[in-house]
Structure formats: structure tokens, C-alpha cells
């Protein structure tokens, strides 16, 4: 992005309180650039859907400002809403409508002139063209989700929100959707998605944010975050107690645990596994015997817990 180019989405000091005092969003500050794909990871109840709902004008913020392409979401509601497309988590669709007429109607709602050509392009890109005359109520869950995406794209938005877009869909549809997201990015569309799936963020995001208890506790370049997410540990149960890690093995950054009866070696999932072979050789040279070993890999929950602890 050029230094003089403003973020397409700017969130400053955003808070959301509900009656009873519950704070769903806590001082959110976030800039998203044009054509960027940002994935928001977080456990249930973290505030992901509330954040999207505020930006899309469904829920009013308690304080703070949100601008989309320089337009304030409250003062310029109609303008910002026309810029944004939203694919909600819930499968709410006009059951008795046909696929084509739903898109045509949705496009008209945003004041766009009829364009059967554009609607055909969207339906074809989502493998829905052969379903254009089917009633939505007759479609499978996966097809209904495709219709929701098509509906969100019907008015040619430049910012697209996908709230858990692949929850409960099969692997093929998930991969199709990743491809669609990439194509939209190539066309300059900015995409913000919430997801539970690390591989989804890993596959398509430029940046990844972690949201927990209404706070964005981390927002980082995807590759850097994946290195953190990919931590693995090799745990060695020793035959004899160690009081300290030998100086000769300092390079491995080993940790002693379980009162000196365990050695823990941490490495990244993408790292070179030859490090383990060298470690085994050096343990032998140092005369350190072990009776058992096992590996663990950070789960998403553990990563959230660690990040929350670091941020509090």
C-alpha cells in the first residue's frame, strides 16, 4: 500500500456494551487495506460476530468510529452498506424464492440497476448456474451457503465479510470457497473472514488476528503467526534426574521439567526435523538416557490461552 493511501476499513476505539453491562467489544483499533484478506480467529463468544455486525450496521456501537472507504458507518449508512457485502453465519434464506430471483432482488435493494449478465457471472463462479431456477428451500446446506455468498456479491461490494463461511461444509466446498476468495482478492475486493479453522487462515489470509473476550489480542502477518502456531514439543522422560541441562546442549534451548526427570525440546512444525536426530546423538554423547518420549503440538485452544495470558 502507498503511504498516502488510506485503509479501506478503519476502526478506532470501538466499544460495545449490552444492557446489563456486558462488554462485547473492548477498545478495538484496526486498519485493513484495500485488497487484503484478514482472518479473525477466536473461540465462541470472543466478539467476532459482534464486530462484523457493528461494521455492517446491524448493531450500533456504544462508542468509537468505523469508516469504510472514508465514509462513517453511522453518518453515511446507505453509502457504507452499499460498499459492504456480508455472508452471515446462519443459513437464513428466502426459501420460496428461486436462486436467480433472490440475487436480482438483493441487487435491487442496494439500488443497483438490473444486470442478468453480472448475476450469471456470480452464479457460474459459485457453481450455481444450473440451480438458477431452483427454489432455495430445495437446495442442500452446502448449496444454500453458496447462495448466501452469491447474495452478498450481488451488489458488487468492495469489502466482503464472511462470518464462519465454511462451518459445517464439506472439504470440497471449502476448497472451492478458498478459490473464490482468491479470485475476489485478485479483483481488488477486501475480505474479512472469521473462522475456527487454522488451515483456512493459513491457506488464504494475508494477516491473522486473534480476538478473545472482546479484544484483539494479536494482529500479525500470517507467515509470522503460523510459525508461532506451529510449535511442537518433544518430551523426553529421563532415566535419571538432571539438575541442569549440560552446557554442550545449550543450542537446543532445552527446558527441564518434572523435577529434572523430563527434558522438553520445542521446535516449529515447519522446521527441519534433522534437529531431532542431532539432539538424539548429542544426548547419547552427554550420557543422558531416556525411557520414553512423545511429541505434542499446540492446539488452537492452547494458543488462545497462551496469547490471552501474554496479553493480560
Task: Describe what you observe in this structure.
Helices cover about 35% and strands about 30% of the residues. It is α/β, with parallel strands linked by helices and about 300 residues long. It has ten helices and 14 strands. Helix 3 runs parallel beside helix 5. The two termini are about 30 Å apart. It has two domains: about 10-225, P-loop containing nucleotide triphosphate hydrolases (Rossmann fold); about 230-300, Alpha-Beta Plaits, CATH 3.30.70. The strands form three sheets. The chain has a six-stranded mixed β-sheet with strand order 6-7-8-3-9-10, with helices on both faces. A four-stranded antiparallel β-sheet has the order 2-1-4-5, with helices on one face. A four-stranded antiparallel β-sheet has the order 12-13-11-14. The mean pLDDT is about 85.
Helix-strand layout with pairing:
Blueprint lengths: L8 E9 L5 E10 L4 E5 L6 H8 L7 E6 L2 E2 L4 H7 E4 L11 H11 L6 H10 L15 H13 L5 E5 L7 H16 L3 E6 L2 H7 L2 E6 L2 E7 H8 L1 E8 L16 E3 L4 E7 L5 H12 L4 E8 L2 H12 L1
Parallel strand pairs: 3-8, 3-9, 6-7, 7-8
Antiparallel strand pairs: 1-2, 1-4, 4-5, 9-10, 11-13, 11-14, 12-13
Output the number of helix runs.
Answer: 10
Number of strands: 14
Radius of gyration: 24 Å
Low-confidence stretches: none
- Give the CA-based shape: elongated
How many domains, in number, for the residues? 2
Average of per-residue pLDDT values: 86
CA distance, first residue to last residue: 32 Å
CATH topology label of the largest domain: Rossmann fold
Under CATH, the homologous superfamily of the largest domain reads P-loop containing nucleotide triphosphate hydrolases
Series of H and E elements: EEEHEEHEHHHEHEHEEHEEEHEH
> Major beta sheet, specifics?
6 strands, mixed
Helix content: 25-40%
- As laid out across the biggest beta sheet, the strand order is 6-7-8-3-9-10
Structural class: alpha/beta
What is the CATH-assigned architecture of the largest domain? 3-Layer(aba) Sandwich
Which strand-content bin applies to the residues? 25-35%
Amino acid at each position: 500500500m502507498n503511504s498516502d493511501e488510506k485503509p479501506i476499513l478503519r476502526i478506532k476505539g470501538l466499544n460495545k456494551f449490552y444492557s446489563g453491562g456486558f462488554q462485547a467489544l473492548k477498545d478495538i483499533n484496526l486498519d485493513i487495506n484495500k485488497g487484503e484478506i484478514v482472518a479473525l480467529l477466536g473461540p465462541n463468544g470472543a466478539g467476532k460476530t459482534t464486530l462484523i455486525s457493528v461494521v455492517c450496521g446491524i448493531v450500533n456501537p456504544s462508542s468509537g468510529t468505523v469508516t469504510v472507504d472514508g465514509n462513517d458507518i453511522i453518518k453515511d449508512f446507505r453509502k457504507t452498506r452499499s460498499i459492504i457485502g456480508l455472508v452471515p453465519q446462519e443459513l437464513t434464506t428466502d426459501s420460496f424464492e428461486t436462486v436467480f430471483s433472490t440475487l436480482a432482488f438483493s441487487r435491487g435493494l442496494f439500488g443497483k440497476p438490473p444486470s442478468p449478465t453480472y448475476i450469471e457471472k456470480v452464479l457460474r463462479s459459485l457453481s450455481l448456474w444450473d440451480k438458477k431456477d431452483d427454489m432455495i428451500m430445495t437446495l442442500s446446506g452446502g448449496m444454500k451457503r453458496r447462495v448466501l455468498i452469491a447474495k452478498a456479491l450481488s451488489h458488487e461490494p468492495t469489502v466482503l465479510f464472511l462470518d464462519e463461511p465454511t462451518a459445517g461444509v464439506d472439504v470440497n466446498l471449502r476448497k472451492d470457497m478458498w478459490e473464490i476468495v482468491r479470485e475476489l482478492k485478485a479483483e481488488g475486493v477486501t475480505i474479512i473472514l472469521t473462522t475456527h479453522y487454522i488451515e483456512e487462515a493459513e491457506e488464504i489470509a494475508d494477516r491473522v488476528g486473534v480476538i478473545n473476550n472482546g479484544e484483539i489480542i494479536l494482529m500479525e502477518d500470517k507467515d509470522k503467526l503460523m510459525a508461532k502456531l506451529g510449535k511442537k514439543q518433544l518430551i523426553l522422560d529421563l532415566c535419571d534426574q538432571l539438575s541442569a541441562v549440560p552446557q554442550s546442549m545449550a543450542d537446543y534451548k532445552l527446558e527441564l521439567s518434572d523435577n529434572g526427570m523430563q527434558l522438553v525440546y520445542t521446535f516449529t512444525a515447519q522446521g527441519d526435523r534433522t534437529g531431532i536426530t542431532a539432539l538424539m546423538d548429542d544426548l547419547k554423547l552427554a550420557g543422558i538416557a531416556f525411557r520414553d518420549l512423545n511429541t505434542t503440538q499446540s492446539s488452537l485452544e492452547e494458543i488462545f490461552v497462551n496469547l490471552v495470558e501474554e496479553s493480560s
